[in-house]
Amino acid sequence: MTKVGYFYTDCLVPMVGNNPYATAEENSAELSINAEVYSLPSRKLVVLQIRSPFIKSKYRPFSQALLSWVQTSKCARVILLSSSHAYQRDDEQLFGTPLRYLLTPALEKSMEGLMQGLKWKEMEKVAAYPGINDTEKVLHIPGGGITKLLFTECCSKEIQMAVLLKFCSEGDNIPDAFALVNYLNEWLQLIKSESSNSTATSSQWKIPSSWRLLFGSGLPPALF
């Protein structure tokens, strides 16, 4: 995808770095910041990538700015890729696939059972007061950052939005990234899938060059 711009905001921790998608020395020095926009016109697809954490108390202003941009840009629908802490699942969420989805009512109307056809599992609501009152259920996405706020705002504004998320643990999240993008691909068919299994890694995805430095550049030989 081609980088087409930036999402300028004071709601994210400031960050600047080299091009994470460098393919040669010539483009490795291009600067990247905390929120960038990429485009794929042939698929009518625009991606906003966020690379740094939210500043405390800035969730709502960011949500308002983002959804205002979505509406003025006349985006047909929004898909949010997210995650939730694996260690905070309830008993029901421990079984089956670690992948979940949510649809706003506006999008649910137009999907006409597509998710059931894909045999996807909707994100379960959990007891608001476990052990005290198990009948009152609420949406709970621990570790999901701005996910729940964006989803509820899209519901109230009647914006077509889907949330695709995976229960994740701390550590090497590269397999989680592959699982989530394969999950998205089951629906959007961005590339021809080699496997119907969302947890399988696909050699057809291009791996960012920056992932080689995910755990640092190795131990200096001078240590030995």
From TrEMBL:
Tell me the Gene3D superfamilies matching this sequence.
PAC-like subunit
Q: Which InterPro entries match?
A: Proteasome_assmbl_chaperone_2, Proteasome_assmbl_chp_2_euk, PSMG2_sf
Q: Does the keyword Chaperone apply?
A: yes
The UniProt entry, under Pfam families, shows: PAC2
Q: Which UniProt keywords apply?
A: Chaperone, Proteasome
- What are the annotated GO cellular component locations? cytosol; nucleus; proteasome complex
- A GO biological-process term: proteasome assembly
Record carries keyword Chaperone: yes
Family, per the entry?
Belongs to the PSMG2 family.
What protein name is recorded for this chain?
Proteasome assembly chaperone 2
Native organism: Apteryx mantelli
